[in-house]
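Hello forum,

I keep getting stuck at the same step: I have a sequence, I want structure tokens, and every attempt I make locally crashes halfway through. Rather than fight my setup again tonight, could one of you with a working pipeline run this one for me? It's a single chain of 454 residues.
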Amino acid sequence: MKMLIKLKQLIKNADFILVTLSTVACSAMSFVFSVYNKRIVATHPLGIYSTCLLAQTYMNYAQFGVLNAYNRDYPQALGRKDYSEANKLKSTAMTFMIIVYAIVFVAFELWVAIYYGTKIGNDTDSAYYAFGYMLCPIMILLKSFDDMSNATVRMNGHYNKSAVIGFIRTIFALIIGVIAINVAGYYGLYAMALSSAALGIIMFGREAFEGAKLTLDWAFMKTMIIGGLPLLINSLIWTVVQSVDKFVILGFLSTNDLGVYSVPLMGFTTMVLVPQTISQVFYIKISHLYGSNHDENELLEKAAYFSRITSFISGGACIFVFFVMPIFVHFFMPMYTEGTKATQILVIGVAIYATTMLYGNIFSVLKLNKSLISNSVALCIFNAIFSSALVLFVEKSINMVAIGTGLSYGLYSLLLMIKLSRRFKFSMWKLLVNSWGPALGIIVPGLLLYSMVF
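Reply #2:
Ran it on my machine without issues. Output:
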């Protein structure tokens, strides 16, 4: 009996590991789908698909920060054991999102019908765009509630349940996606994301929305908007940052190049996968921690500990992607081989950034909104200047975009540590050693070995 109790406690204490493993497995399945669709769909239609997803990404901000406020304040309310406040936050966020996304759906579908209605039968590209844009409000509605459901289950402390459900629903979504893309080609590209979000709502919903009810408390909604708006602005700036390279390609290169650039984006996703997952769990844990004791120094110590872990993982992942991606693309995605060099370039900069991802959460938890926003604005400026300048003045290729993006993430990582060190009087050397140190210790020898072998 004691052994069973110890085993249960061990599993509970290893929650972030289980969530990470589940996320890695789910992302591996998404990666498989991404590779598979590149064997069937050519670069130009995939570029159209990427363009449509840009519109979906920006629709997420129609919630005006209510979901951001919920993700920050709900775990803190639980940490204070203020369950009445927690339920009020949940009910208000749910009600607001239903209202706002219903309005977005009606408005956007009308625009698609008016703008593309007469073009669909005459032009294949117009039909592709119309279909993608038509699905955007549906996908963002489902994804928003899926994200809220999953986050709520984790914030309730059920990390392992989240991990298991996430794994199961992704298996089903992958099967649906593969069938859809074989039957419908381009039109099947959207199937996996749609089915994954829908299954997530169904499987997480019972626990996630327990106790929630529709409520039109406009004053509380306003409070949540005001509280979450700085986080929303920061998130929006981050979205702009992550879109700058795509906008540069669409502005100075072509839709076909954007399709090819999906390969470097796969490398980006691989690099940030584990650090991002640990960051999400870490964010919830320190929100609980800060809600109970308000100890800033302890937050930094925790961040340093988790950063060492993510740094080793980031360094290993970077070298793995650097060596394997060219061979992998050649055999499994032969239409996209032009994207391999850009992938290798991008993953180095992103690996450095990934080591400091956890540090950024501290600004959010402590509601240091000005610093949070200024950090993101700096990254946005770095990315826009470097990517555009290299394309305009050096070479018009996606390789230059990758260099600019990688440099901007590296500089942002350094800026983040400088600000933390000054704001909290914390050792800059300790921040560097715990973040960049392990990763560079793996990346530098790995790159030297690559240069000698190849």
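The two ends are 56 Å apart (CA to CA). If your local run keeps crashing, start a new thread with the error log.
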